[in-house]
Amino acid sequence: MTQTTQQKAPIALSCGEPAGIGPEIAAKAWDRLRGRQPFFYIGDPRHIPVGTPIREIHTPQDAVHVSAEALPVLPITFPAENTAGQPDPRNAAGVIEAIARGVSLVQSGEASGLCTGPINKKALKDGADFAYPGHTEYLAALAGVDQVVMMLACDALRVVPVTIHIPLEDVPSQLTAARLTDTLLITHRALRRDLGIDAPRIAVAGLNPHAGEGGAMGREEIDMITPVLDALRRECMNITGPLSADTMFHAEARKNYDVAVCMYHDQALIPIKTLDFSGGVNVTLGLPFIRTSPDHGTAFDIAGQGIADADSLIAALNMARKMADAKTGNAAPATTEK
């Protein structure tokens, strides 16, 4: 039987760094969504802004029943007081515990998906010897998977960078046939499984200007990218490219694909942040559970001032709900409140 919205397992929201804007945008997201999009906050209730009605819960399902009246909080007691804009390394273990708790609840089916608040990696390293470059690598380790892919998504565009946080001069050496193949396969599977797109259309950018222009501006397209795409086309994947990146992102071009796979960080992120700076969502593909995150950091410079924008978090919560519905075959849409 198809579940009603009230019966669905809620989305888990891990607190992230409490000295950042995470608690503030969690409160704002709850105020705008209320019971229309049940989620619960995993963290210390003391960190939620004063004036926000909260209700401590014992199980995720409790969130479904109380979210219309108060922000549901699955409590974790942090050892140190929280000062906006000033991360305390003593709270690092609590931040990590919130992430791990969220993963456990999603894996058990008690939560439909995990949305993660932004973390501060230095505070985690200083306070808990956090050994991972970031959220994504830690989640992959908890899930026991070797490779995951980052997708940024908004209503107008989805993009996947093959290489991410490396210097531009290192991109050609890191852009291997194996890496490109794995990225495309993970993306294709995730669009089918997690977004309900039966036959994903994937557009692939070239590395060089004008996709190399037949070798005149570089040979990566000829020597590596095209052979990879041809091999995957023979496996019946719907792939176009390599395409010139400067003509891929206007409105008419975007009608022809479901996701754009780009060769490096800025090639992917500039177009999506231009189209929807506040509404972009970070989605981790390749995990055995749903994980989304707002596409911004802790914003220590504005934390505690009441001016943080919750749009990206709301979009991330809605995306997690949409993916959970697609994964279970439930066609009921999430609220489009932004």
Task: Detail the topology: elements first, then pairings.
Elements (H helix, E strand, L loop, with lengths): L10 E4 L7 H12 L5 E5 L10 E3 L3 H7 L4 E5 L16 H17 L4 E4 L4 H8 L6 H9 L5 E5 L4 E4 L9 H4 L2 H19 L5 E5 L14 H14 L4 E6 L7 H4 L4 E4 L2 H11 L5 E5 L5 E4 L16 H18 L10
Parallel strand pairs: 1-2, 1-5, 2-4, 3-4, 5-12, 7-10, 8-9, 8-10
Antiparallel strand pairs: 6-7, 6-11, 11-12
Helix pairs in contact: 3-4
What does this entry look like structurally?
Pathway: Cofactor biosynthesis; pyridoxine 5'-phosphate biosynthesis; pyridoxine 5'-phosphate from D-erythrose 4-phosphate: step 4/5. Belongs to the PdxA family. The protein has 338 residues and is of the alpha/beta class. The protein folds into 2 domains: 1-148 and 285-338, Isopropylmalate Dehydrogenase (3-Layer(aba) Sandwich); 156-275, 3-Layer(aba) Sandwich (Isopropylmalate Dehydrogenase), CATH 3.40.718. It contains 11 helices and 12 strands. The protein has helices spanning 22-33, 60-66, 92-108, 121-128, 135-143, 171-174, 177-195, 220-233, 251-254, 265-275, 311-328; strands spanning 11-14, 39-43, 54-56, 71-75, 113-116, 149-153, 158-161, 201-205, 238-243, 259-262, 281-285, 291-294. A 12-stranded mixed sheet has the order 3-4-2-1-5-12-11-6-7-10-8-9, with helices on both faces. Helix 8 (220-233) links the parallel strand 8 (201-205) and strand 9 (238-243). Helix 3 crosses helix 4. It is globular. The chain starts with 10 loop residues before the first strand and ends in a 10-residue tail after the last helix.
